[in-house]
Amino acid sequence: MELHQIKYFMAMSRELNFTRAAERCGITQPAMTRAIHKLEKNLGGPLFRREGRLTHLTELGRIVHPRFEDILALTEIAQEEALDFAKLQKAKLDLGCMCTIAPACLISLIEVFATNAPQLNLIIHDGPGREVAHKLLNGELDAAITALPTIPDEFSAHRLFQERYVVAFPRNHRFREMDEVPVAELSGEQYLNRINCEYLDIFHAAGFEGGIDTDDRFETEHESWVQAMVVAGLGCAIMPEGLAQRPEMHTRPLVDPQVYRTISIVTRRGRKHAPATDFFVRLCKKHQWRNPPF
Fold first, then answer.
1. Is pTM, for the whole model, over 0.90?
2. Where do the CATH 3.40.190.290 domains begin and end in the chain?
3. 3 state SS of 172
4. Pairing between strand 143-146 and 92-98?
5. Which secondary structure element, helix H or strand E, spans residue 4, and what is its range?
6. Tens digit of pLDDT for each residue in 178-210?
7. Is the CATH number of domain 92-294 3.40.190.10?
8. N or C end of the chain, less CB within 10 A?
9. ∠ CA 290-88-113 to the nearest 5 degrees?
């Protein structure tokens, strides 16, 4: 059987009149009749019966009707997906990424992305979490990978993985003798602070309300400066475990509370997404993340 025969059958089952069904399909009534007869021959029995001026589906017609309906629906989906794939080959994706999410945590995803969509142009925009969220809200970004402690109602988010927070410190620091560092132990320490840092919000969300009375002698917007100053012995810093990349820098997990953050792929709720965005979100959801699962 052929696809056009199925379409003619479905039109005929709706109209129950060969002339009107032919008009719906844009063909002549004899062509409609021939197509239905050929389909009946392939299926081994009549699909319609006439009783005077009335036409009805036969038992065979009622049996195949939902199957043919599924075939047409799946065909439409396949055509849409093929069209989306064609669009994907010439598209670009503006992806926001919080600057405190280490590239090492995401590079395996980007490698899979490059393999599966070699023609798609990926542009990564990094910045503080609130700045990334603002750009996504305003339509400057198609999607974002963030670790904000709370997700605004305007966004749809899918959790990807979690990572814990650690304290990073120079070689001869007292924290080196500890297996874990209680958050309260940071009080009085020389601390290297990040401008626009979201970490304290996450600690408050985890239930630590006591405050950390640190000696914030240095502040910077750039992570490379933070880690360079830690190595130089100028202070300690809180950071996600994946961000602690310098081998000269020592780290310990933070406890009391033990704090994790959730990395999510986020899109604007209610916005019609381009095929490239939908493809990337699906890729994020099925990716085998190396971090421990939830």
1. no
2. 92-294
3. coil
4. parallel
5. helix 3-15
6. 999 998 898 888 988 887 676 666 665 555 555
7. no
8. C
9. 15
